[in-house]
Amino acid sequence: MATTFSPEVGGALPSTMSDLPLSIRTIFEHAIKSHPRKQIISRDGAQVLRFTFAEFGKRVAKLANVLRTLGVQPGDRIASFAWNGHRHLELYYAVPMVGAVLHTVNIRLFPDQAAFVLDHAGDKIVFYDGSLTKQIKAAADLQPDSGRTFVQMGAAAEPFEGALDYETLMTPEPDTYEWPEIDERAAALLCYTSATTGDPKGVLFSHRSTFIHALASGLADALGISERDRVLPIVPMFHVNAWGTPFLALMAGADFIMPMERLDPAGVIEMCEQERVTLSAGVPTVWMAVRDMLQAQGKKLPALERVVIGGSAMPTSLMDDLNGLGIDAIHAWGMTEMSPIGTVSRDIAELAHDPGMQKRERYKQGRFSPIVQWRVVDEHGKDVPADGVSRGDLLVRCFAVAKSYYKNELANRSAFEPDGFFHTGDVVTVDEYGYMEIVDRVKDFIKSGGEWISSVEVENILMGHPCVKEACVFGIPHPKWQERPVAAVVLRDGQEADEDAIRGWLGDKLAKWQTPDRVVFLDAIPRTGVGKFLKRDLRERYKGMFAEGDA
Ligand code: ADP
Q: Whose CA is nearest to atom 1 of ligand 1?
């Protein structure tokens, strides 16, 4: 037969390959069919529940039937307000697979912020954990006429009049469902950035972007996940889809373990031990606390091979300490807008002969995922050299990177270039081996007398001080220098150090102009809902510190 050229492929030869959409359903069906006996394990109150993937599949089908009974239509937004637990995971699959969108709301938002995102998203139903009744009620009370349905999962902390019960809804429903075919470009999940500045911005992930992100993040030089892994996401399922692990693990056929509210170090250690977790992921703070407890108890977690650490910079001391405990600490960088994984730091063949250099490289945020196109540009938009020294703004684009925000024209105009490149807001270097290092977020740089001070660099050095548990560095307006750095420090339990000791110690490692002028000691550093330092609050709290005359 004569070959015809189809206009659909721009005049090129159409392939003979399937056009089946990339979808979350593909991951789901693979997991339950090819790995039916693998396990979903979840804390639930005092118990630990276990479901095989096959049983999980039946519960997901039941939930899809519940959604139908509740009148959910394709495109509807359905919110979750929940810890990492098995019912949350059921929502992760059932909601997108019926064609609706799962909006994972950050449970640590203030009631007015939660009400804002529920309203902005136009959520029709909210599924919430019973232990979070008080928090969700506080948000619901701000919008008494929202017409939303509330569904409670697990035991309630207090009554919520009118709320439906998840398990009661599930019981009568059949455990099969005729899944609809969904366009791969359709929205599957919605997540709002944690909004360290301004109102939260929503990112709508598609079936396609979710599938591609899961494939790429599983690669050997990314998370390197396999069927033999037992995966425990400490990163919450409302923080950029727990970095994709709920899809990645099921795609790989790995057991998936969820801690619910037990994110305290003792809870994490217990879960790692009992469930022989091999791979975990979370922000640095969690691992600092786990490290401290392991060191204090002289304990190791022999099954735990690797932890992925990102969300904010991993202090070099944390990587060293975890390595000392026999755990491979894998630094990664990403953003909500990127689904989120952008870079992962792993060893490379080229540096096999030079362990010292390899280690220094591993401290960095890592090498780019193959699904990320990136540019590092100067203030004129020109690419800077990849020499490990030249800094520039990082721009990214690709299959799992947002091309716009959800209903937010203002943010779209400043964040996205006409060619689709997204401004990450991070200033970085990339070196000859392809390792990217975050110098700072644009807004966190400290401008002192015409020089730029990287808060990340100073924090990293401070966190290596033996008495320092945590340190956060921020700029405060200064009458002479424009801004000067201030360090907020939390000391380790039982340790003592004063301002002179800390500044003196820094003086050996930093130039004088980079050394913070003041050190303030706090019991805790204020944080965003996903555990990042809230520098905005500290800048506000100490803004008059260098007022005229006091400089
Ligand atoms: P928000 O922008 O509201 O903080 P995100 O969770 O999307 O929400 O945060 C993305 C930002 O977090 C990145 O642009 C970067 O500044 C920071 N970040 C993430 N991972 C790292 C890391 N490993 N090292 C340093 N900064 C990081």
A: 194
Supply the DSSP string of 352-384, one letter for each residue.
TT-HHHHHHHHHS-EEEPTT-EEEEE-TTSPBP
Ligand 1 geometric centre to CA of 311 (Å) = 5
Q: Hey, whose CA ends up nearest to atom 13 of ligand 1? A: 335
- Whether 452 is catalytic is yes
Tokens of residue 268, six digits: 């994490």
Asked if the structure places residue 356 within a domain, the reply is no
Q: Return the CATH number at 88.
A: 3.40.50.12780
Host domain of residue 544: 445-550
Pairing of the two strands 451-453 and 518-521: unpaired
Q: How many separate helices (H) and strands (E) can be counted in the chain?
A: 17, 25
Last residue of a domain, one of 199, 215, 231: 215
Of 528, 535, 389, 393, whose CA–CA distance to 459 is shortest? 535
**What single-letter amino acid sits at 108?**
R
Model confidence pLDDT, tens digit, residues 83-117: 999 999 999 999 999 999 999 999 999 999 999 99
Q: Which of 149, 447, 499, 509 is catalytic?
A: 447
Pairing of strands 518-521, 39-44: unpaired
Nearest to 292 by CA among 500, 538, 43, 490: 490
The answer to whether residue 505 is domain-embedded is: yes
Q: Write down the residue that tokens 């307006």 correspond to.
A: 477
Name the 3-class secondary structure at 425: strand
**Residue 157 and residue 131 in contact, taking contact as beta carbons nearer than 8 Å:** yes
Entry pTM: 0.93
Instruction: Answer yes or no: is 303 within a domain.
Output: no
User: 527 CB under 6 A from ligand 1?
Assistant: no
Distance (angstroms) between ligand 1 centre and the Cα of 194 equals 10
Number of structural domains (the chain) is 2
**What is the C-alpha separation between 311 and 334, in angstroms, rounded?**
7
**pLDDT, mean over the chain:** 94
Q: DSSP character for 220?
A: T
The single-letter code of the amino acid at 372 is V
**Domain's final residue, options 181, 198, 215:** 215
pLDDT in tens, 502-536: 998 888 888 888 999 999 999 999 988 888 888 88
User: What CATH number does residue 463 fall under?
Assistant: 3.30.300.30
> 407 lies in a domain?
no
